[in-house]
Structure formats: C-alpha cells, structure tokens
Amino acid sequence: MLRVAVLISGGGSNLRALLEASADAGYPAHVVAVGADREASGLAHAEEFGIPSFVVPWRGAGEREAWGAELDAQLAAWQPDLVVLSGLMRLLPPASVRRWSGRLLNTHPAFLPEFPGAHGVRDALQSGVRETGASIILVDDGVDTGPVIVQERVPILPGDDEHALSERIKLVERRLLIDVVRRISTGELDLTAVR
Ligand code: GAR
C-alpha cells in the first residue's frame, strides 16, 4: 500500500477526491497525512475521513527555509512514499524539493509549460486562448517547471469565468491525480522514467 501525504492551502476538493478513492479497499494507495500552510478549510476533509493533519503556518518569504524544514519534519513522521502538492500555494525551499525529489508531485490548473504560477486559470482566461488544461508534474526547483507526468486539454467555453473554468479543470485534475497515484502504486508508472 503506497503511503501518500497531501499538502494543501485551500478547499482541498482534489484532496477529497483522493480520500474518497483511497477509501475503496481496491485502491492501492492510502492517504496517511494531510498538511497545510494555514488553517485551510480543506483540512476538514482529512478530519471527516479520520486522517491525521498538521499545519505549519507560513511566516513569510524570509522564513521559507525554516518553514520548509518544519514541514519536512512533520511529513517525515508519516514516512510517505509520495508527497502530493494539491493546491499548496507556496513554493517549497530547495532543501525540501531535494529531500522529496522523485516522489514530489504537483497538480497545476493549466497545460504546462503554458501558464505556470499561482494564477494559471486567470492567466489562461486573460490571454484569450480557446483551451487550457490540467497537468500533474514532478516538482523541481523552478515554478511549475518539473517534468510533466500527465496532462490533458480542457476547452475554455464562451462565458467562462475564473470559477467556472477552475471547477471544470479540477474535474480533470481529480481524474488524472487518482489515476496517476494508482499507477505509481501498482508499478505501472515508473517516476524514475519521467523526465
Ligand atoms: C487546483 O486546481 C490545483 O491545481 C491548484 O489549486 C487548486 C486547488 O483546488 N493549484 C495551483 O494553482 C498551484 N499553482 P482544491 O483546493 O479545491 O483542491
């Protein structure tokens, strides 16, 4: 059973989808802990599913290294095989990226390398393109620059606002995330081969 830790900042709807999937006895991964950089509302999903959670409050960019070290210590206590950044809206310091390298995943609401950063949905809408996407990547030291594990296009529809488009992208992200974690767990997907 693959041990998965998930880090969030917000509502955690993708986290919830993973928790629902892993509640199925046939699913080969288990969420062992959920962490956040603030008292995120999504932590309630962990509580509902009986999964332990922790908060390492963000204290500003000047404290990034110390914050990351504390986060690493909390994560390490759960011995995760995989760490999933699922809407964590903070950049991990390089030491944390190195520590979890090769087993650190990020979900991003755009078809990377298009529209990296904190406003992937808004940036796609403002650019006037007709389609964007959803990506799951391995995290490296850059901002959404790591190798793509899987990605899928999502059309931008007339009348879409940021919320509507974000919700439609998340439907795709959830499916991709659940499938990627399953395939990693079964050995069908070898992350060392992703580059
Ligand atoms: C997701 O769309 C995720 O890809 C995005 O935040 C959302 C979290 O939603 N992450 C980023 O934009 C990271 N740059 P959720 O809290 O409802 O799961």
Describe this structure in words.
This protein has one domain (2-193): 3-Layer(aba) Sandwich (Rossmann fold), CATH 3.40.50.170. Helices cover 35% and strands 22% of the residues. It has 6 helices and 7 strands. A 7-stranded mixed β-sheet has the order 3-2-1-4-5-6-7, sandwiched between helices. The model has no long low-confidence stretch (mean pLDDT 97). Glycinamide ribonucleotide (GAR) binds next to helix 1, strand 5 and helix 6.
What are its keywords?
globular, 22% strand, Rossmann fold, binds glycinamide ribonucleotide, alpha/beta, single chain, 195 residues
Strand percentage lies at 15-25%
| CA(first)-CA(last) distance | 25 Å
Helicity range of the residues? Answer: 25-40%
**Element-level helix/strand string:** EHEHEHEHEHEEH
The residue ranges in which pLDDT falls below 50 over 5 or more consecutive positions are none
Number of helices: 6
Number of strands: 7
Query: How would you write the strand order of the largest sheet?
Result: 3-2-1-4-5-6-7
What structural class do you assign from the helix and strand content? alpha/beta
